[in-house]
Design brief:
Layout lengths: L2 E7 L2 E9 L2 E7 H7 L9 H26 L4 H10 L4 H13 L5 H15 L4 H10 L4 H11 L5 H16 L6 H14 L4 H11 L11
Antiparallel strand pairs: 1-2, 2-3
Helix pairs in contact: 2-4, 3-4, 5-7, 6-7, 8-9, 8-10, 9-10
């Protein structure tokens, strides 16, 4: 086959329609044409056509990943899952992931640090909640533990949780409720925030000095 015409696609100036022997052959990005040095009059063999299509598919995978990353930072697992949803072959997904990592556009360690920093800036949270959320997003467990240990180094979680509990009580403003029920509500609030019992118990004992020992809060 011989390329007889190359024209811009209407509405997509970065893409081209390629014609061979007077008939439409395929659409491709301008980048693909440049990479393969295709021009009008060139002959294109079946092997060259397959290579061109592979290049185009790989560029499509990268464009899809970059669009996905443009909304917010993502983990490697999230990007991989997104590309699988779009039915890209595994080898193209792996190549795309590797290219994004080399370009520092995909970095689970940087993602984890940013996630913890932003979450703590938004509201006080315990390690348990942050760990659970990052694991669900696909961050490896050893990396999650390392980043959390780093972020909470020197932080007195009991003091932070106590301050959060006081604000919760002030906002609730239900002074007529039975003390045991209020204590239970505060404990539930702190548990939902991801604090473990070794943090929750001293906070409750500080707030409710006269209350009897509570059982473990699940």
């Amino acid at each position: 086959m011989r390329i007889t015409k190359i024209e811009k696609q209407k509405g997509h100036p970065e893409r081209r329609n390629i014609y061979a022997d007077g008939s439409f052959l395929l659409g491709a990005s301008a980048e693909t044409l440049i990479r393969h040095r295709l021009r009008i009059g060139d002959e294109i063999e079946p092997a060259a056509l397959r290579s061109l299509l592979q290049t185009e598919e790989l560029l499509n995978a990268k464009r899809t990943a970059l669009r996905y990353l443009s909304y917010r930072p993502r983990t490697e697992r999230e990007v991989r899952h997104k590309l699988r949803e779009q039915d890209f072959p595994d080898h193209e997904i792996s190549t795309t992931i590797d290219d994004l990592k080399r370009a520092r556009l995909l970095d689970d360690e940087a993602f984890a640090r940013m996630y913890v920093r932003d979450a703590l800036a938004l509201r006080p949270s315990g390690k348990l909640l942050l760990k659970r959320k990052m694991l669900l997003l696909g961050v490896a467990r050893p990396l999650v533990d390392h980043v959390l240990d780093e972020a909470f180094a020197g932080v007195d979680q009991i003091d932070v949780a106590l301050d959060a509990a006081k604000k919760f009580l002030k906002k609730a403003g239900d002074k007529k409720t039975d003390a045991a029920k209020i204590r239970s509500r505060v404990g539930g609030f702190l548990a939902r925030r991801g604090y473990t019992w070794d943090v929750i118990e001293p906070v409750l004992n500080t707030l409710f000095k006269n209350a009897q020992h509570e059982k473990h809060i699940e």
